[in-house]
């Protein structure tokens, strides 16, 4: 099976780009952030304190997460229930970021991710795909952008949906999440030695897809 790894900070456009590339290449897109978010939904629903590692460890034993595809779109099943529509809220993102630092959480999800990559060709995005989950991926990309550019994209997205938001608050959240993801002890976010860095601050979606297609072609 072949695998492509895309890592990078929150809001760099990983999932948008990975979805488009997966279609182009006929690969399955695997969104690993959604799995950390599904665990977070369980912790929130069961009032588990994200700062209490023992409570988290105990809860992880009661969590079963699996992945299905419906019309080509990834669905996350948490203890038998499809929770996909609950995953993309700010609150769930924050809970995921706080709890993704624990070994019990990561061990469970890394096993699930590796299992998926054994069955089919995947383009997988996350924070530790090129470094830990799929170190043998034939193409690795580290997708990033300035925090200003990432905050501006999220701000425009929310405005478009008619939501009231503050650019400064969004930027602060993004920088906080970057810091937490880059400074945790286990599997911190970092560029793999053999990953190609792509800074999308001044690129549009078409340009990013073209740049990544070229990198992937050259690695084939
Ligand atoms: O990418 P997304 O915003 O959905 O990820 C939510 C959180 O899950 C991240 O902030 C990060 O803490 C965690 N995560 C991770 N490793 C991954 C994917 C996501 O630690 N491979």
Structure commentary:
This protein has 220 residues and is of the alpha/beta class. It has 2 domains: 1-26 and 121-217, 3-Layer(aba) Sandwich (Rossmann fold), CATH 3.40.50.300; 30-119, 3-Layer(aba) Sandwich (Rossmann fold), CATH 3.40.50.300. The protein is built from 9 helices and 8 strands. It has helices at residues 14-25, 33-45, 53-60, 90-99, 103-119, 129-133, 147-160, 167-183, 205-219, and strands spanning 3-7, 28-31, 65-70, 73-78, 81-82, 122-126, 139-144, 196-199. It has a 5-stranded parallel beta sheet, with helices on both faces. Strands 3-4-5 form a 3-stranded antiparallel beta sheet, covered by helices on one side. Strand 3 (65-70) and strand 4 (73-78) form a beta hairpin. The chain is globular, with a radius of gyration of 17 Å. The two termini are 13 Å apart. The model has no long low-confidence stretch (mean pLDDT 97). The structure holds cytidine-5'-monophosphate. Cytidine-5'-monophosphate binds at residues 10, 32-33, 36-37, 93, 96-97, 100, 126-128, 177, 181. Cytidine-5'-monophosphate is lined by residues 10, 32-33, 36-37, 93, 96-97, 100, 126-128, 177, 181.
Task: Itemize the secondary structure elements and their pairings.
Layout: E1 3-7, H1 14-25, E2 28-31, H2 33-45, H3 53-60, E3 65-70, E4 73-78, E5 81-82, H4 90-99, H5 103-119, E6 122-126, H6 129-133, E7 139-144, H7 147-160, H8 167-183, E8 196-199, H9 205-219
Parallel strand pairs: 1-6, 1-7, 2-6, 7-8
Antiparallel strand pairs: 3-4, 4-5
Helix pairs in contact: 1-9, 2-4, 7-8
The structure holds cytidine-5'-monophosphate.
Keywords: ATP-binding, Cytoplasm, Kinase, Nucleotide-binding, Transferase
Domain Cytidylate kinase: 4-216
GO cellular component, one term: cytosol
């Amino acid at each position: 099976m072949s695998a492509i790894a895309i890592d990078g900070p929150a809001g760099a456009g990983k999932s948008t780009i990975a979805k488009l590339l997966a279609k182009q290449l006929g690969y399955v897109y695997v969104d690993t952030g959604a799995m950390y978010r599904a665990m977070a939904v369980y912790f929130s629903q069961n009032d588990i304190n994200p700062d209490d590692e023992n409570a988290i460890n105990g809860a992880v034993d009661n969590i079963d997460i699996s992945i299905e595809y419906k019309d080509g779109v990834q669905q996350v099943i948490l203890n038998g229930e499809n929770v996909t529509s609950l995953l993309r809220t700010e609150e769930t993102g924050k809970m995921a970021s706080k709890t993704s630092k624990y070994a019990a959480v990561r061990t469970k999800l890394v096993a699930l991710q590796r299992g998926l990559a054994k069955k089919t060709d995947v383009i997988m995005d996350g924070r530790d795909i090129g470094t830990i989950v799929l170190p043998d991926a034939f193409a690795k990309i580290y997708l990033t952008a300035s925090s200003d550019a990432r905050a501006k994209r999220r701000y425009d997205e929310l405005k478009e949906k008619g939501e009231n938001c503050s650019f400064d608050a969004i930027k602060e959240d993004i920088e906080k999440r970057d810091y937490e993801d880059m400074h945790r002890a286990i599997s911190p976010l970092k560029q793999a030695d053999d990953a190609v860095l792509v800074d999308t601050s001044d690129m549009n979606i078409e340009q990013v897809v073209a740049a990544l297609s070229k990198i992937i072609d050259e690695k084939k």
